[in-house]
Amino acid sequence: MAQQEDLDFTYTTIDKIFRLSMGETGDYSGAKYDGDFSMSLEEAQKAKHKFIADSLNIKEGSKVLDMACGWAPFTRYIVKERGATSLGLTLSQGQADACQKNGFNVIVRDCRTVTPADYGTFDAITCIGGLEHFCSVEEWRAGKQEEVYKNFFKVLYDLLPVGGRYYMQTMTFSKNMLPFEEIDINAEKGSASHVLALMIKEFPGSWLPYGPEMVIDCAKPHFKLISQSSGRLDYIETIGQWRKKFRKFNLKKYWLYLSLVPKLLTNKEFRHQVAVFKVSPNRVCFEQEIMDHYRLVFEKI
Ligand SMILES: C[S@@+](CC[C@H](N)C(=O)[O-])C[C@H]1O[C@@H](n2cnc3c(N)ncnc32)[C@H](O)[C@@H]1O
């Protein structure tokens, strides 16, 4: 799985730039437009929060575990708008510091190893955009991907009561995914081989499930599927809106961009890692159906 240093690279490096662009508790996961792209990004993110909270029956007093909580957008929603209590977990120190500064109960903790002995059990659990990081390329190559997901569902099983619900959304590989051997950072720019190589560099330690079926199968002994929908097209729109916000002028933010220039000039690996500012590998992968994105609601049986 991705280690804390990997997540710190992906999320702590951009912490300040992200908050200056998206707001203190911005979402860093696909929004829910349901195809209505006249909605603003903020409206579509709120629609997502509402959908999740309704699907999990989160109400006043509910005790929720927000795994992989990012900058706590969903935690903020359920605490402020539903009167729930929430514990958020992240592996990025920068995110945890920002969340705590903003008054949210968020700690740095690997959510895949939580047990009831740590914080008790929960009425509902979310993991919005976290599963992508749970299996590394090496684990996948060693044939361990399903074991990783099965172990994770066992963790969830122990933390929920019978009938308790779990929501997750995750990117998945899709019908046009390439064989691993064809992924190549030196391939033609913008080609599937090239964007997949960029993605691996942007998200070190992370590999995706092969379709929602793989996740649903791994959940089976413990959970039944309540609902499933693809958010692929909504994610393409989300990324387009993010890119506008990342570019929008803000003196402090542009100063931070400038401070990256020396490293950019001297470090080839870093140049690959931040090539995402020019082309969004995720967006190309969604457009070419190399990847899809799924929202899944499960219930413990
Ligand atoms: C794409 S962001 C999603 C953040 C947030 N849920 C949202 O929707 O904005 C992925 C998050 O997963 C967290 N993460 C990845 N692996 C984790 C793990 N094993 N334990 C806890 N958090 C993890 C990262 O630290 C980051 O906060």
From TrEMBL:
Tell me which UniProt keywords the record has, alphabetically: Lipid metabolism, Methyltransferase, S-adenosyl-L-methionine, Transferase
One example of the protein's molecular function in GO is: methyltransferase activity
InterPro entries named among the record's database cross-references: CFA/CMAS, SAM-dependent_MTases_sf
Q: Does the keyword Lipid metabolism apply?
A: yes
UniProt lists the family membership as follows: Belongs to the CFA/CMAS family.
The protein here is known as: Class I SAM-dependent methyltransferase
Any Pfam family from its record, for instance, is CMAS
Q: Which Enzyme Commission number(s) are listed?
A: 2.1.1.-
